[in-house]
Amino acid sequence: MTPAYRQNRPALLLTLLALLATGFSQAQDNSQGRYRPEGREIGRAAAQELGERLFEVRNYVPEISSEAFAGATIFYPLTLSFDAPMGGLVLAPGFRASQSNYDWWGPALASLGYAVMIIDTNSPSDGLEARKQALIAGVSFLKDQNSNPDSPLNGKFDTSRVGIMGHSMGGGAALAAAAELGEQIRAVIPLAPYCCEAGGSFASDFSALDTPALIIASAVDEVAPPAEHARMLYDNLADGNKLYMELADGNHMLVANGGSDLATIGKFTLAFLKVYLEGKENLRPFISEPGSDYSQRFSRYEWQ
Whole-model pTM? Predict the structure, then answer.
């Protein structure tokens, strides 16, 4: 007679594997294409060009306790015990979009050492004010991961080095959130920003906002024409520590998955973050003058 434990060996093995999978689900290694591979390649190319270290990337889906946003995925670099704590960013989607539209950003930025939390708003049609509140709550949530024993970021996150990003109406919300967060963040990156509530007009004043800002736009954006949105917002910001990058090509979705020149957008964003989140002054020339290899890709490029 075959012993019972041998008869049940396959079931026991499956149970063990299920328990192991549950135990490691939050630190799942996504290096085999389970995240968008284009983002990883953009990060790899940026690391080589900027002379920066390249990290392996993992991600997890945290349990959300906030009423301001519905969900999130956090991408993060696999660091060593002696590495300095990492900085990070919170990214809000555009109107009627979700985090899945922007998941190239996760591996691209995490590959160079940043935790990136891409959120879902409570409703895809949430307005600018709701997205602003989602970003503010997201910053607090991401910082709290540093003291969360169930998070892979526990004890590894630098709560003083945080930035926020957003696309379209999420980009306008990022500036509004930056104005409220003040010194709680170090950088704000509006991506093809839409200035205001849907159908509304610009009624804010960011002239006192001195948070370093990178505004990325397309010259041929028909949803948020730069003169009425991105460029207008840039001109409204305080002088100093601001960069306006207007690509000659690309529609309103140029910063989302499948955008026309994500490699350029990723590299300049990473250089900006290295300067303003990490203080790497050796990379400031990269953003102050784009160089001949990039100059033809921009219709306008201004840095103060």
Answer: 0.89
